[in-house]
Write a structure and sequence with these properties.
The chain contains twelve helices and ten strands. By secondary structure, the protein is an alpha/beta fold.
Amino acid sequence: MTILEAADRPGTFVPHAYDEQVVDLGEVRMNYAVAGEESAPALLLIPGQSESWWGYEAAMPLLAEHFRVHAVDLRGQGRSTWTPGRYTLDLFGTDLVRFIDLVIGRETLVSGLSSGGVLSAWLSAYASPGQVRAALWEDPPLFASEVTPAIGQGIGQAIGPVFAAWNKWLGDQWSIGDWDGLVRAMPTELPAPILRALAVMMPRDEAAGPAAGPPQNLREYDPEWGRAFVSGTATASCDHASMLARVRVPVLYTHHYRAVDEETGRLTGASSDDQARRAREIVTATGGRIDYRSFPDMPHSMHEHAPKQFVETLLDWVSTLDRPQ
């Protein structure tokens, strides 16, 4: 395995509103940005698949009024180390445990989107005692990012074809890099329900169309991530049902756009209503607290597309944490 650092990818990155820092976690060097007063409660932000820390850039100044915010790049994304052959939920989660220990150094609220939402669930279950106060799971693909889930559609019947196409045409570590080929192939390689749903789940500026080349977030993403999820290697050691049964902290689950295609049964969206229901059942069956908010018209990333609503949703929920249930 040849790991790749940010210095091995010159010309990839662009400046942002917040200074970036790096911490050595052992196998990986994790990139992150910080905002807010040191004395404020700690908040860890975990991006989704193909998202770098700056996906939270619009929300960070709003959050910084209330928290000491740490937004990270997971291994294989952004300026953090790329680790070929070593992309699993357990490795991502262990990186975050080390980050909390070495950088935050105190109990923290965690919030993650999509795959980062699954990692927020992972930390809810497996972080060291005293590390996590509570967790926001922002539209996580619980069950739907597994190959053979305990309920509902697996990744092959959900977002998997998108990840597979990215990996096929861009290659592990961008070893192929055929962006034009990917753009030409998408209309025929992706199922029609997925194509229709992408415009709702991940709306983009029309000016930044395919002719403009790869979007910045994909430039900073190792497409082997997608292959690891589609093949099942990313989730093989982390059964979602077992993970949910171990959740030990209060949770807010926000559930965004989702639909099931009537003809094919294909899921468009991060998780189905049945999968969200089952996740709540498992957490509550073991005595855990999980609050659920449905936003069926919301794009996949609330923090990017509706940052004010994201922050208000988080703050409203945090204000209830010390109240008797």
